[in-house]
Every structure is written in C-alpha cells, then in structure tokens.
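User: I'm preparing a small set of examples for a lab meeting where we compare how different chains pack in three dimensions. I only have the primary sequence for this one, and I'd like the structure in token form so I can line it up with the others. Please keep the answer compact; I'll paste it straight into my notes.
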Amino acid sequence: MELSDKVIIFYKDGHAAGTRLSNVLRHSPSSWKKIEMPLEIPLEIYGITDIVISGQIINFVDSQDYPQVSLIILQNYESPTSACVAYEVLNFIRSKTSKLSSSLTVIFPCLTVVRNSSQNLRSLCIEDLEQSLYAAEINEASDFSKAIVKGLKILPPTAQICDEFLACMLHFARVLLLPALLLLAPTTRISRSDSKGAHFQQAHETQMLCKLGDLLANHMGLTFSKDLLENIAIEIEMDAEDDWRRLYG
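Assistant: Understood. Below is the structure token output for the 249-residue chain.
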C-alpha cells in the first residue's frame, strides 16, 4: 500500500475538529475513488503492550489507482504514549510515500488553544478570537505547501501549542525531516458554566472549520460541504490543562 505525497493527519481532538473535517471531505473528480483501510501499529518496542495505534487510512485514488490525497485518522493519545505514537505514525508515512516524490507534504489541520507572549495572536477571550487561519511550514517547504500558505498569516514563533499530541507530531516531523505544514485555527477554553461563551465558541469553531475545509478542498482537488459539517453532532471536551503543561508549560 502506498500513500499520496499529500497526507492529511486528523485525530480526535477535544474540539472534534479532526472528526468533523475528515467526515466532510469528499473526492471531486468523478474518475477518483475512495479506498479505506485500517491502520494498526504495535508499540511493543517501547514496552507498551496494552495499547496499539489504531486508526484509518483513506486514499483518494485516480483512474490508474494512484493515490492523489491520503487521510490518516487517529485516536488521541496521552503522555507518554503520545510521543511513541507520533514517531511511529510519521515514520510509517515516510516508509509508505514515494521515494521519488519531491513534493511530499504532511498536513496538520487543527483547531486548538494557542498561547503567545506577544499580541500577534490573541486567544485569551472568546469574544476576541479573530477569524484568521495561521500557517507554519516545518522543514523544507514544497511548492505545494507554499501555494497553500500564500495569503495566510504566519504563526508567530512565540506561539505555544496547547495540545500535547499535536505538539509531539510537530516535534517528530522536525526530527524526521518530514516536510510538514501546520494549518491552525485558534480557539480558547471557556468555563463549563459559561453558556453564552459556549454558544459563541461553537459558532466560531464551526466558522473556522469551514475555512479549513475550504482551504484543504481547494488545494487537494476535494469537495467540502458546510451544510454537512454543521449537521454533524459534536461534543466539546472542556478538559483541564494537562498536568505536563502545568509543570513544564
């Protein structure tokens, strides 16, 4: 099995962004078809026997059965397993993409909380959230990733990703020298008791997911349905900050 040189990684984050986006992206050319395969990678080499990387691979292939776009859909994983999973998944991608391709790009679309010491990117108050997508290119940028980034804001280098699994993915993309692209829509945490804030947050996040979906569809030869996205029921987890972030963040 071979993957496309355009790989999008989704996972079950606390805002249900990965789940929602992966369910509403469809192939556009009638000559393309969708092929789904399970993904399972053991973690025994790390001494982890009770957890297996479990996910799904979706290949959109052309009439010659060559993959044009690949989606990898994962569960979420906590520390310290998250680091093992991130390394193994990215190493798997590297082994399954064409060695001849010079345009390999691993894409991480996400909706997450971001901290920043400067005021270039604000995420302190839900009403202050701006409607902009941010991008960060990792390692050598391909022409494909440069085309996506054009017109987007660049994520400030002081920004801190408050999502452990995503942070691990980005770290090991750098370590493995994988050309990668982070597409980020900022959001924030709100109190469980703040019903007005929760309603505003849901509307904001749906709007930002539509922007992410449109961006991916336009550059991947896929289609995206806003109506379908809005019809998917979601459960937003308002988890407390991870212990490791409290200790080291």
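A couple of notes for your slides: The longest helix spans residues 195-220. The first strand starts at residue 6 and ends at 11.

User: Perfect, thanks.
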